[in-house]
Automatic annotation (TrEMBL):
Belongs to the D-isomer specific 2-hydroxyacid dehydrogenase family. GO terms for molecular function: NAD binding; oxidoreductase activity, acting on the CH-OH group of donors, NAD or NADP as acceptor. Pfam families: 2-Hacid_dh, 2-Hacid_dh_C. Residues 29-312 form the D-isomer specific 2-hydroxyacid dehydrogenase catalytic domain. The keyword Methyltransferase does not apply. It comes from Effrenium voratum. The lineage of its organism: Eukaryota, Sar, Alveolata, Dinophyceae, Suessiales. Keywords: Oxidoreductase. This is 3-phosphoglycerate dehydrogenase. Residues 132-259 form the D-isomer specific 2-hydroxyacid dehydrogenase NAD-binding domain.
Amino acid sequence: MAGEAGKARTVLLATEKAFAAAAVTKIEEVLKEAKYTLKKLENYKSKDELLAAVSGVDAMIIRSDIVDASVLEKAEALKIVVRAGAGYDNIDLKACEAKKVTAMNTPGQNANAVAELVFGMMIVSARNNFDGSSGFELVNREIAFYGFGAVARAVHKLAQGFGMKSFAYDPYIPAEKIKEMGAEPVATVAGLFEHQYVSLHVPLTDETKASINKDLLSKMPKGGTLINTARVEVVHEQDMLDILKTRQDFCYLCDVAPKDIEPFKAAVGDKFGKRLIFTKKKMGAQTAEANDNAGVAAANQIVGFFEKGETRFSLKA
């Protein structure tokens, strides 16, 4: 259990999309120093492989891998699972609580990587994917953040360098604190959509799923651009398609495509890659630095949990 120091532990690194080799080496070094055993399941192809691998392990490090009731049932010795990243909708938190398994994420470890992806997509869109036509500059533009955690604040920092003005809404951060951090607080979610750029930084929950709908998107001014590096499911898919079809000025920049990309391509025609940008895989944390940061943080949190009883980044259902 947490705080029971000095015991032998086995940690499973279960990554369908594997970490870079250098990151795995650093994870292994952290665990080796604690005298823990690292068990690796990388690039696996079926859930059966995961179900077999979890037996007997004390802890798990995952990325976008699914930890649900069936996994927890097979992981009879499991005490903690850490998602190396910010989002955690791939972990069944209710099932974890029922099995008395602590779930954590590693917030902030991939913030710079995601922030740079946001600006990469913004620049590509603003400059028409460098097709030779005239675009526009980002200086003096406005960007509004739905959620103002570590990733959003990293984007905000870059926005300041670009001479942009930032606005933010976060129900968990007082308005005066948002103002202290250099952004103008907004009172409601709807108020964010009065600005040209809206950047989403919210988890996928029952409340946020499909919450970005036609009513909100229709409020955006000419050249309105939604940036989604959160989860594709927070945007109402049909409403987004309708907006793209009816507003030729509207842009959608998203880190990972929907399952059926063809209707979106059809909605924008030859403006795909300009008005509409999708990454091929979720790319926000796909940098060497983010790999290292998130993986090592996950390993350190597991050691801290067992050796010192630390639960700072615990998640609740």
